[in-house]
């Protein structure tokens, strides 16, 4: 029976736990044996270093818990190790506010990003955030390298590029006063099947009478220079070459331009690479067609400004190119003919900070293409970071022009930035745990295509401050078998126990197990813990508020009586399955209040003189009276009239209180029923019920009951239909009136007709009578003269 009660109490305790408790507590789940382990478990975790903190049966790992839980369990705030991360800015040079035409600065003197260096001290799970400002400087130096396809199909393009130097210099002078330009060319790998290797074709790969130069992979024709005329002269000396297949070896050339910085002459300024072609490209794996299987090594192989290892290394992969272009802060502009636009658009999507422009058939629009592409690239800033140490994450939030805020991957970038615009990024760095070596790490954040960067030194909090005061081989740890630090023993290898009193080889002996049993008939540590060194170490529960304790883990603080689904009624705490009540409370579940103030009626009498106060609640002795202080009499005269207006407004929305109903009439629970038979009857309830019948302004009756239930709640049951007197039936009345009028009219017509018939008959009879009495007729009239005259024709008959 006791086991069943224990199981029910445990289930109730489990159901009362919140979702957070179900998921567990990261501090407890860490099962930390020392302070350093604890603070690495999470940002909320603290370690109590008070030597007397642990109760009997509690493990060392219970020192590690959330701050509020440790304080609640009796650990003073100043005895809790809970370090926090910090940050320090080491270099914070302000961004340059400079206009074109002002004093000329060296590239290294121009600052577009702030701060430049900082140190972050990270606590596991606790983010450290800082703001990064970027301002696009005006009159910023630009290096532009023009890399051109010199296969035969680009013959007419070369003629237009020969004058590119001075023209481009003139246009770029509108953007910057410090501009340099270089030139390189490429064709293809000099092996079959990319070119013809016959001696004649090696000298002149073109057909007919065309004079072409020998095929080559890549040449650096002109190092970056500010002399536009020199560009024109050297480019003017270039000749077209040829190859066999349509895709070109441009990727080899791009790789060399990216990694051969000394040969090209790149400065730490804006670096632009213009790649001009009218064909596709070979990439990694295509070299196998020529018997080349070694992957591209991504190193510089220029001798006399020519790529010498094209026959030895395969073409680079796209990912390899992306890495090298990013490492060297080079922004690529693909100037390609319309036919290959879709191909290079896809390539652009794979290479950050790149652009594609449509090259006219003869490259006549190349200057406008470069200007437009540069404006497009420089109007967007995208942040990237170097490889992060294990367990470190970084999050970006951008605050761009016009108040636009973005997070996630979009938080890395801002678009539509004009010269002189300033944007801000909020960067949050979080660590989970500590690196294996625990040494400082370095990461860098920079805008793609720019040489400036932010250097971040990451330091990690892996140990507590109290660890510095630890005493090795302390006598407090069983004759020096451990280090006493942060209020607990950190045992040497091979030793276990709270004071390191046992060898790990002896922890499971029968003698030790015997001391962990309360008696011979019970389980080891009451099945609520483990026997370590002859001492019970009680199990931990997911809910940090619940604990097993006692010499044999026979006690707990969650299996006490409950009231109102609260442990010890919420007015005490559970110790070894017994409620210890707060002052002024008593009972097995601390649910009986000793305070009589809750029983005082409005007349200052206990329970209105009609009851007794038990556990802070009135028990009314007069059955007519109810309520928390025995002042309510639902069956007394006047109850129906008192509540009439409130019932009327809440049930039907009418009455004098309909406008103030919510304010004045929310003191009872309203329950609607269909008819009067559904209303509670006096004999059905265990408390008095008052039946009421009231009439509203429309002479309609409504029926309800009023009662105070056993929970001292006032409740009203009301019939949801008004009982109104039946009004006259209009249709039959109207029909009767109309029918009566019609019938009366017909009757009058019939009477009139009858009278007319009688009158006519009388007149006719009178006429007949007078006619009979007449003394003469038309034949005897003396003055009658016949209207007929007779004449005879004297000629008739002859």
TrEMBL record:
Residues 753-798 form the Integrin beta subunit cytoplasmic domain. Residues 35-464 form the Integrin beta subunit VWA domain. Its main location: membrane. Residues 640-729 form the Integrin beta subunit tail domain. It is found in: Cell membrane; Cell projection, Invadopodium membrane; Cell projection, Lamellipodium; Cell projection, Ruffle membrane. One of its GO terms (molecular function) is C-X3-C chemokine binding. One of its GO terms (biological process) is integrin-mediated signaling pathway. Gene3D superfamilies: 4.10.1240.30, Cytochrome c1, transmembrane anchor, C-terminal (1.20.5.100), Laminin (2.10.25.10), ligand-binding face of the semaphorins, domain 2 (3.30.1680.10), ntegrin, alpha v. Chain A, domain 3 (2.60.40.1510), von Willebrand factor, type A domain (3.40.50.410). The keyword Membrane applies. It comes from the Eukaryota. Keywords: Calcium, Cell adhesion, Cell junction, Cell membrane, Cell projection, Disulfide bond, EGF-like domain, Glycoprotein, Integrin, Magnesium, Membrane, Metal-binding, Myogenesis, Phosphoprotein, Receptor, Repeat, Signal, Transmembrane, Transmembrane helix. Disulfide bonds join 27-464, 35-45, 38-75, 48-64, 206-212, 260-300, 400-414, 434-692, 462-466, 477-489, 486-525, 491-500, 502-516, 531-536, 533-568, 538-553, 555-560, 574-579, 576-607, 581-590, 592-599, 613-618, 615-661, 620-630, 633-636, 640-649, 646-724, 665-700. It is a single-pass type I membrane protein. It holds the Pfam family EGF_integrin. Residues 1-20 form the signal peptide. The chain crosses the membrane at residues 730-752. GO terms for cellular component: cell surface; focal adhesion; integrin complex; lamellipodium; melanosome; ruffle membrane; synapse. InterPro entries: EGF_extracell (IPR013111), EGF_integrin_1 (IPR040622), EGF_integrin_2 (IPR057073), Integrin_bsu (IPR015812), Integrin_bsu_cyt_dom (IPR014836), Integrin_bsu_tail (IPR012896), Integrin_bsu_tail_dom_sf (IPR036349), Integrin_bsu_VWA (IPR002369). PROSITE patterns: I_EGF_1 (PS00243), I_EGF_2 (PS52047), PROKAR_LIPOPROTEIN (PS51257). Belongs to the integrin beta chain family. This is Integrin beta. It comes from Gasterosteus aculeatus aculeatus.
